UniProtKB/TrEMBL annotation:
Classification of source organism: Bacteria, Pseudomonadati, Pseudomonadota, Alphaproteobacteria, Rhodospirillales
Domain of life assignment: Bacteria
Organism this protein belongs to: Azospirillum doebereinerae
Family matches, as PANTHER family: BLL4979 PROTEIN, DUF169 DOMAIN-CONTAINING PROTEIN
Protein name in UniProt: DUF169 domain-containing protein
Length: 275
């Protein structure tokens, strides 16, 4: 007799209202400098334009996606773009799947002699880059989570320092441990953050690239995390649990010239257990 297949219970959706509250919690827990934001792809551009408070670029203006993200996380704006809002045939639109990648990039012509020694290296860079498959989506919107306007976003993004970020990852590992391996594309690192997270719907940490720092205003000490809303909620639950053990931000320095046993005992007990 063949056993009947058990239907999987759908996982609860982490909606805009809950994400708004979680964004404030994360800001308080890690003392973030800028706003956590949501990002959502739209198959129908008119559906994107119906998002409350959405602003769109004027037809004659072009933006990079890193500029869009910064206007949301620092300026608090809710913004939407279509393919024509971005530089034509460039990585910005291709990474999120709302534009095809132009031959100038895929051939290596654009970056050979600039970021790479030759066309072979430039082509390999483009071929290795995580991207959303083109053809399905027509628009992309970003908005601060506290505005509760994307319900729900596809992914959550926030910028943090290395010290803040490692504690967040510790929180993400609290309930269900996973060893994370994050890739480094190099230039065009938006592929490692929102490109990878949108394509895989898994957490992705990136080191923002030169263009993100020059055009997107990313600070020298900032890293970027992109992940699905459910993982975002789980990580904050873990952060709060870690805080109850005294593991919280800011991480107070114990001192390089003292016996660490006393400090370790506060976390692991007096039995000599080591981390």
């Amino acid at each position: 007799m063949t056993a009947a297949k058990t239907a999987k219970t759908p996982k609860p959706v982490v909606g805009a209202a809950q994400l708004g509250d979680l964004a404030q919690e994360l800001t308080d827990l890690l003392r973030l400098r800028t706003l956590p934001i949501g990002m959502k792809l739209f198959e129908d551009a008119d559906a994107m334009r119906a998002v409350p408070g959405l602003r769109t670029p004027t037809p004659e203006r072009r933006f990079s996606t890193c500029q869009l993200v910064t206007q949301a996380r620092i300026g608090g704006l809710t913004l939407g773009i279509v393919g024509d809002s971005l530089l034509p045939n460039a990585n910005c639109g291709a990474v999120v799947g709302i534009n095809p990648l132009g031959a100038e990039y895929s051939s290596g012509d654009k970056m050979a002699g600039v970021w790479f020694r030759d066309h072979a290296a430039a082509r390999a860079h483009q071929a290795a880059m995580p991207r959303v498959e083109p053809g399905r989506y027509r628009g992309l919107a970003v908005s601060p989570l506290r505005m509760r306007r994307l319900d729900p976003p596809d992914i959550v993004l926030f910028y943090a320092t290395p010290g803040q970020m490692i504690l967040f990852i510790n929180g993400l590992q609290w309930k269900r441990y996973r060893r994370f391996t994050f890739g480094v594309t190099g230039e065009s690192a938006c592929a490692d953050s929102w490109g990878q997270a949108l394509a895989s719907r898994k957490p992705s940490l990136s080191i923002p690239c030169y263009a993100e720092r020059r055009y997107g205003g990313v600070a020298d000490d900032e890293l970027l995390m992109a992940l699905p809303p459910r993982d975002f909620a789980s990580a904050i639950e873990g952060l709060k649990a870690l805080g109850k053990s005294g593991l919280r931000y800011p991480i107070l320095p114990y001192g390089t010239g003292v016996d660490p046993a006393e400090g370790l005992s506060a976390s692991y007990g007096p039995t000599g257990k080591q981390p």
